[in-house]
Amino acid sequence: MSNLVPGWCLCLLLGGMLWLALAGRPRARADWLAAAGHAPLLGLAACGLLAALRPAVPGEALFRASLPLLAAAVLLAAGAALWRWRAAGPAAAAATAAPAPLRWWWWLLLIPIAVRFVFLLDEALLRPVFAWDAWNAWSLKAKTWYSLGQAPFMAPADWWASDDPLARTALAWRYPELLSRIELWLAGAAGAWNEGAIGLAWPLLWLSLIAGCAGQWLALGVSRRQALILAYALASLPLLSVHGALAGYADLWVAAALSFGVLAWLRWRRARERSQLAVALVCLALLPLFKFEGAVWALLVLGAGALVEVPARRRGLVVAAAVAAGLAGLLLAWLLHLPWVTLIRDVLSGATDSVNISRWSAALAFLNGLFGQNNWHLLWPLLLAALFWQRDSLRRRPDTGLLALLLAGGLCALFVLFVFTPAAKWAASATAANRLVLHWVPLAVSLLALLWREAAADKALPPAH
């Protein structure tokens, strides 16, 4: 455990420098809060990518071997951050009025978040990785690599025919491996396969997700009171809290990268901050590295961005080019026998399961996960009511309307997956369906924040005569 504290310090320092290098000099206190929220995600992802550069080195030796690379990355990121800081000029750091002190009742919201974080930290420290998907998809590879180096994982048939003594196989051998490499790096920093030390990343990511979203809400014009209340609402969601302690699962990482990417894109659209566009692209690029569904969400956001950013007269051309590029990429992946094509084919065709579930049952189970269970409190009914109440703002404010369309597109994609494909069994069993909905939950709360912002702005307008 001797390297764990300096390892975490270097990781968070790298994440903070990467944020400053991408986003430039902070212009307001909201940017500092957003930086604190983005730093763990960016830093841990960078450490996982650095671990991939030394695949033959196992265990603690990997951490020691990656230290020069990590130090070089910190210096490079710090140099880029310093250059961006100086390039911003003194005008970017113009003094602002001191904020009003926190009122006493605001502490009633901040203290429960802190207490909840302590409990999640305790869960992560004391509970071993036990979730089946975690061992099947991510932690299995990490523990294997800790002992052997980053041995290749392949299909069972290929493994049976392989003469590579290091080759391994698993049921979920095709999953993206960035999270496994992050776990490997954390285990190397701990000096042993210490699941408590590895699990620390999950409650920290839970807290950073709340802080990062709150910082971006403030930058998007949400008041501090509104941001604090909705940060508490986000922290109180039961299934999100569960994943804050459920070490080994990738869904919280996908939710953080997706939320940060979309909110940074909305900031770019609001004030044309090019730095935020860079943050958005980096976060979206991380999505396919965490989970297969992340690739779908990244394409959805990028497709929406391409449609709204090009002039209306050229949108048909952009759609045609995107369809052609998608078909060409699919054909190339099929010719190269890439595993994700086979996985999608098997899921859509039902080759992976023979369970027969009616579409009505699957649809009711999916909707029950949103409205009938206790995973989200009253988030979804409240969001529907807010959308109806502030329906005019969806047309008047492009960022609010775009976020609503993105959220609707994501939920519709999940509905199709869990109703019209063999994946309906996961909706019926109330397992994977709710975990994938989790990816969009922080953006659902973000939409509530923007709708509340519009309601407050309308209330502040003078009455029309």
From TrEMBL:
Q: Which domain of life is it from?
A: Bacteria
Does the record's keyword annotation contain Lipid metabolism?
A: no
**Which residue ranges does UniProt annotate as crossing the membrane?**
33-53, 65-84, 104-121, 200-220, 227-246, 252-268, 275-290, 319-340, 360-389, 401-420, 432-452
Could you list this entry's UniProt keywords, alphabetically sorted: Membrane, Transmembrane, Transmembrane helix
Hydrolase keyword on record? no
User: This chain belongs to which protein, by name?
Assistant: Glycosyltransferase RgtA/B/C/D-like domain-containing protein
This protein's species is Tahibacter harae
Organism lineage string: Bacteria, Pseudomonadati, Pseudomonadota, Gammaproteobacteria, Lysobacterales
